[in-house]
Protein 1
Amino acid sequence: MKLRAWTREHVLGITVVLSVVSLTLVFGAALQAVPTDPLPKPQPLLDAIPHANAVISLAAIGTILGGVYEIRRGNVDRHRLLMVASFLLFAGFLVLYLYRVAIVGPSAFPGGETVRTFVYLPFLAVHIVLAVACVPFVFYALLVAGTRPVEEIYRTNHRTAGRIAAALWLISFSMGIVIYLMLYHIY
């Protein structure tokens, strides 16, 4: 119980630490600065990860939308369940993504140079910015919700952080699916 009380008193600081650690791992893996020697490297698994992550992204979009729907209906328990499921899907996506990108690096765009320069890269940049921006809002909303009784949550910034997190998450996951389609199906 003491840990929960301590966490409750330090939500903002914990949010900052978790965000920094998470984003350091993401950028470390994307820049291939994370040691991968001890990791297994089965090619079929590495090849399957982008497709699995597209399915995970679709599922996350569904759980986020479901969570928003349920809270608007006043169903806090179902909202909480769906948002925790969204976070777990996000965590699963991230583990798979980091594993693959740390080993093989970012995927090269297979289309033409003009499309890459004027469509793919700007789209990817916006996706990355939104994905990075949503991280602290997600952690904050989850930490507030996990450390307070429901009645107290309404007196916090959970609603604001949750709305921002959900919007950024939805857009980022949706853009990720478009990027997946561009990398593996369109070009």
Note: The mean pLDDT is 96.
Protein 2
Amino acid sequence: MEVISRLFNHRPAIQGEIFYFVRQFEDKKNKDDELINDIWVNSRNLSEKILPLSLDLAADNFTQIQAKVLVCCQMCEKISSQEISPINMENKSESEEGFRHNIAEQKHIINKEYDEAVMKLLSEYEEMEKQVERENSTAFEQI
């Protein structure tokens, strides 16, 4: 029993354990200090450089947007204030009808050209297939 009590009361072993225990907390404290310092540097950079620049850019852009919206509102008011007379409506409907007619003609021409191109390609592919068949048949005859 005396040997066991001497083992547990051995001061150098206990002091070593205590030293190891304290050193773990000091290491963790140093890491925490470094992390806090990094956060402080980043937050200082953000508050001194990035935020003022962002606010200046936002102020410039907001004034530009405000000016554009104001111009847009004025244009809308000008358009809505103009009276649309029956004569303007007739001219407008005639020009729209002419536009639709032109579009229909162009569509017809484009469709015709497309169909011709498709037919040309189909005939070329048929000729190519016939040529491949001829070459295959001559190749088989030579073998």
Note: The mean pLDDT is 79.
Protein 3
Amino acid sequence: MNLFYQLEQNHIISNEGEFQMNLRHLWNDLSNVLVNRLEPRIIEKHDRCGQSYYEVYDPTSQKFSSLNSEKEVRAWLDQRY
């Protein structure tokens, strides 16, 4: 077996491994997107005075709400589940 043939075979194996790794990353990213679409979204924001409030989104009902406290967010989550 000559050196060129060995290098060529190593490159092919390396490319196959790289392809499988890229395919696995693509699958993981796609899975995360699909799963995360069903998860509620909660974003903490601040008004002009610096007070915190929360914008929440329920993807199953496609409704947004604005809540004033973490306690309200917890109640919203409990009601949702």
Note: Residues 1-37 form one domain.
Protein 4
Amino acid sequence: MEPESKQPDAASSPAKRKRAEFEDDDIEVLVGTEQARFVVHKHIICERSTFFHSACSQRWMEEKRAIELVDDDPNTFNTYLKLVYGGGLRAIDPQKPFLEYIRLYSMADRFGDLDAANAAIDGIIQFSDQEHQVPNRGLVRLAMLSSSAHSPLQRLMIDFYVREISEVSIDNLEEDNVLPKEFLAAVVKEFVRIARAGNVANGLWKELSTCASEKPKCYYHQHNDRFPACEDATRPK
């Protein structure tokens, strides 16, 4: 895997060292309106992504046509590929991690790569816990509009506002023109659900005070037969 213009950090990964094995099985991916060019090992990315697996199964791939992702961001795709090739999330911009993680989750979710989507979720939670911050309203709006309904990312955003947002921010929600109405309705429903379930005062307080980083590691994850649940359910500190 490599953008045409620069060598990725994942160059030393085991998958990268197998380049000779898959040299004749590479695919070309053109990303964004400027069509940034990436060369990816078909075997590796199709094993991770249902989107690429389906795209590479189509008849037009036999003609060696490139896969075009016109609406995607090249930087986000580069981050995604580094994650796929074992490079972790070191490519995330430390100045705007929430934005980068949300974009990565949206892309991974559309690609059907649950491991990458789960990694993005973990990144959001870890940064929030370390820096004592939550995504601002603009980022919450992006998360809500760029992910499917009831997705783990949407549930995480709702939980941030229910359990970790400040009282001042809650007071201003009725005048908010940024957050989608569906999100505001979901926040209210979650408050109602907790209130109805909290018959004992201590139980209610425990529910409201349990932040995302204190929940089991897989709480906001997606898993299936291809992407089984984490062996260690304890979230790293």
Note: The chain has twelve helices and four strands.
